[in-house]
Design a protein that fits this description.
Four copies of one chain form a homotetramer. By secondary structure, chain A is an alpha+beta fold. Chain A has a single domain, classed as Hotdog Thioesterase (Thiol Ester Dehydrase, Chain A, Roll), CATH 3.10.129. Chain A contains three helices and five strands. The first copy, chain A, has a five-stranded antiparallel beta sheet with strand order 1-3-4-5-2. At the A-D interface, helix 1 and strand 2 of A face helix 1 and strand 2 of D. Strand 2 of chain B pairs antiparallel with strand 2 of chain C, so a sheet runs across the interface.
Chain lengths: 136, 136, 136, 136
């Protein structure tokens, strides 16, 4: 699963701000949705993982570059590309693109680091081997 | 278009709160997405409508009843059923259901009143005839 | 504590939408903040209540009327007035006003019903007597 | 105004997620509130600036490190420290701390780059001299 995964996102009123564009914090929500669907496409559902293993993924770093704004009704494509897969964390490259007739435009690019932690204590933990195998 | 329209919604981390369930204000977001897609299914895109007519839809009333909570990873079905279509406003019945193997469960039911206003002054205005014809 | 309680709220970019106004779902957030601070003013902190009693408040009904829009940088006053206090639920009247030099303007009025439930099962439960006494 | 500015933020239900902690995207909201209040403390109100100059600030980069989670009812202190002030953009260091009896704990640290753009075209522009003077 080291290929790029894509997930469509539509821009609704809830996503926009008084500048007429998508509020920049919302790209983190879009990236999260895409990561969740990327995991689900591998058969990993986070609520089930939590119940079976007692662990959850948490974001430990996010580095975002904003290139162009998105607007109401825009159709976006959000991508997930794992760059590094360790025993306790993943580094993932993510992008949000606006679909257009004359090609897609890059709106926001991010590098997100996600760690595996105990769901009670939030202390770093080793990912269950089943997850690691699927990711590798 | 007086039949019921349905739109699927998935519950992500962004939607939940520390009670482990979907934060109740977020049903208004889900209902908005479903209304937007209901309009789009009729060929009405709100950003284009605003540019061509200078008007937008705004919510003037919302009455919500919460029945059961939704949780992370739940698949919901959100419905739109117009109850009354006037010259300046619509009354719409909306419901959010959780899809389940043994049938769907009603989570939240709402009646939402949406008015048509001038996008600059926010004063009530008459809907463009093209919208009215599509809605009726 | 049957008098009206007030809590100030400032409108930030995060609160607005592409209509240039506060996204209507956000009044539920403002009302929640005011209810939380109303409880805190009585010495009730919800996270502590949950740990000591195993119960939490959940919204079971919300009826909202939108009168005027709020905009970026507006200063709002959000009120809490308990109308009915039962053993398992409260009915609360809430309003959001915009502060202005020539008087305040009513933006949104709501009636919110809040029930007490077990934090695990979300089943209705009787409020701990300490809460009831403080509320009455 | 090159000193550190601080702004208090309280954690409400709306801020949390099903992990029982503040949803990580919300730190961008907290940082935005603090920057807005930092500008306001200098006499700069963004809605008035936009009307008078036709320009707005937009975030062009955000680099976030998450250290510890915040929980419901926590009291946070959010800081603003300008690192670089250019003609078209600012680089700002921001931190969110949890207030505690035995000292404060760093929850999230960020470096945020904010550019000045034309509010219509979103093209980079030079900041009005009045802003630059206040910032320097």
């Amino acid at each position: 699963m080291r290929e790029e995964f894509s997930w469509p996102v539509r821009v609704y009123w809830e996503d926009t701000d008084a500048g007429g564009i998508v509020f920049y914090a919302n790209y983190l929500r879009y990236f999260e949705r895409a990561r969740t669907e990327w995991l689900r496409a591998m058969g990993l559902e986070q609520s089930a993982l939590r119940e079976s293993s007692g662990g959850i993924f948490v974001v430990s770093e996010a580095n975002l570059r904003y290139h162009q704004p998105a607007r109401l009704d825009d159709e976006l494509i959000v991508t997930v590309l794992p760059l590094e897969i360790g025993r306790a964390s993943l580094t993932i490259q993510q992008q949000a693109w606006r679909k257009g007739r004359s090609g897609n435009a890059l709106l926001c690019a991010a590098q997100v680091r996600v760690g595996w932690v105990d769901a009670g204590s939030y202390r770093p933990a080793r990912m269950p081997p089943t997850i690691l195998e699927l990711l590798k």
